[in-house]
Amino acid sequence: MIKIRVPATSANLGPGFDAVGIALNLYNTFTFEELPEGLEIVGCDDDFNNENNLVYLSMKKTLSKMDCKLRGIKITMENNIPVSRGLGSSAACIVAGILGANELAGKPLSKDDLLKIATEIEGHPDNVAPALLGGLVTSIVERENVFYNKIHVAKGIKFIALIPEFTLSTREARGVLPREISFKDAVFNVGRVALLISALSNGKFDLLKYGLEDKLHQNYRSKLIPDFDKLKSICDNNNALGTFISGAGPTIITIVDEKNKEFISNLSKELTLLSNNWLVKELEIDLEGAVVLGQE
Ligand code: HSE
Question: What is the main EC category here (predicted)?
Fold first, then answer.
């Protein structure tokens, strides 16, 4: 039996579209037990309880790359990461399946190999990289290889996730993006993402409100998130350091000074006046990434 824990992730962090992501301390766990034959999946909706399950597909793809064949498998999932909310639930499934396959095969693959396969499956590395490695990770794909860097984040901030009850698929949220952007908007994002990473790394948190701005996706996607502008103003009025759409949304994350003790209670009061049952969750950075908790 192999047990694997994978953290939630928030991709983009505003301007870092498809290139920046951070692991957060909300976890799914996956248990794998080999069977003589067949597939058994426990702990997920009926829609995913079949051969198209992302954990299973990722496991099979990884094993086939190693020329290993899976006889049968029981996958038990304990899900705490909300699905289709922009918190990396798909990335968690992909990373768990790949890591589980590597464990079953006797760990022939390196972290870089695992990340390459995960990126092939997900299509971009910004969620799978921090899910696998933990922390704040910048990543790019260059001729099918993934290059990444894990960046130290200075102490003193907390991440508050505002999670609505409605879902938004990544496909839909990518579908509203323009095919081309202007040179001016590209320059806008280059500056912001550089400022963002440097501010997180050296603790100049007063720069986050500029560093989290973006012209590539948030203006388009915010229209799919009812009350986005209102929520952003509520966060600003309660001294948030900066606010962004988590991944493809609809979750919104606001970064707050850890000394801002009143933030959650003030925010929660205002959220009760809005529809969509926004849930408030205080999260910290997960530094470990995916871990194998046990193997018997
Ligand atoms: N970078 C991706 C996006 C993350 O924003 O579409 C979600 O998969």
Answer: transferase
